[in-house]
Amino acid sequence: MRIGRNITLATTPDRVADEVAAAIRDGLDSVWTNQMPGLWDPLVLLAAAGRVGPTVELGTAIVPTYPRHPVVAATEALTVAAATGAPLTLGLGPSHAWSITDQLGLPYASPAAHSREYLEIVGGLVRGEHVQHRGRFFTVDTELSVPAAPVSLLLSALGPRMLEVARDLTDGTVAVWVRPELVGEVLRPALRDDQRVVVQVLAAVTTDPDGLRERIARDYAAVESMPAYRAVLDRAGLQGPADTLVVGTEEELAREFARFADAGTTDLLVAPLEEPQRVLDVARAVAA
């Protein structure tokens, strides 16, 4: 299992290069950003790292698809990969109706079908192909002159239809608010053996796990009402996102991280809530 760190909530553009340099120094495999409402563009944020080189993977988990034309997404991804010199993983996903429709005024129609068309176009373009596509959502006839760079694709997929799209058109799935049981029983079996299961976890070494769970339950209460996440939480018998936290002593964190590995997680993206260095040290020790 590879270990990465999500830096979205802990950084500004001025600090990105420092965060990436620290990840390389600490022996992490990857650094990830994601699109949060009202915050930085995740790909531009990664570009702020400057010339990184091939020692660490950069990734997005995720970039929403509906607000970005697939040709734009492919162009931006190739540009970031070329500018940083790092392998880039473009994690994509349809996001949620409250963000796409309620905030942006865009139709949130048929997310699985939309994702399939989107990935057919992006996948061809990042492979250097001339893409001719005429579908329900997009009509494209173009190719990119941006120099080829290593870009792989992931899809935010939790349900059966989205997992089918991920299996057919990407290098795997990226998930959040899940427990090891869901990885082993749902995500891993739905994909090919050579595909990735990338899982984001909020984690902390703390003497007050209950207090931390209460804080996360309050801060992330909206997650409970998002249909895709609600379905996954219900399937696992969980009340809300706070039930997916990995918190407690270093020994407790090590046991939980090991359970994710045993369930088939290929990449664990850690977002430390407290004691970040101790959390990352535990994750690296488990991966080793």
From TrEMBL:
One Pfam family this chain carries?
Bac_luciferase
Q: Matching InterPro entries, A to Z?
A: F420-G6PD/mer, Lucif-like_OxRdtase_MSMEG_4879, Luciferase-like_dom, Luciferase-like_sf
Please state every residue range assigned to the domain named Luciferase-like.
Answer: 10-266
- Single GO molecular-function term? oxidoreductase activity, acting on paired donors, with incorporation or reduction of molecular oxygen
Coiled-coil intervals in this record? none
Name the UniProt record assigns to this protein = F420-dependent oxidoreductase-like protein
State the species of origin.
Answer: Actinomycetospora corticicola
Q: What is the lineage of its organism?
A: Bacteria, Bacillati, Actinomycetota, Actinomycetes, Pseudonocardiales
